[in-house]
Amino acid sequence: DAAFARAAAGDWRFAIGVVKRGKLFYRFIMAGPRGTQQLDLLNRQVVGSFRALSQHEASSLRPLCVRIATVAAGDTVAKMAARMQGVSRPRELFLTLNGLDAGAQLRVGQLVKLIGE
Fold this sequence. Notes:
The chain contains four helices and five strands; from the N terminus they run E-E-E-H-H-E-H-H-E. It is α+β, with helices and mostly antiparallel strands.
């Protein structure tokens, strides 16, 4: 069972999908600035691919945590991003998670967030 809706707030548009599995409801929200194409299509693809995990899949999951690390001499964005575990596009996530621009330089002693087990 699934339901779909659209919403808008300011310059943002949202495609919302809700899936019911047993007594649980799962909500998916796709967001983009006004004029973003295919939000509805993307939402329907995501909702359509939703399924319960097998017992084997569920038992093999490990939670990811945000950890704080201190930048040491010689550390770069690339080196710190490489320490992230269980994520796709670690460089982009590292930059976003730490509020850094693409050309950012890290300072020795700076505290940064990393994702890992």
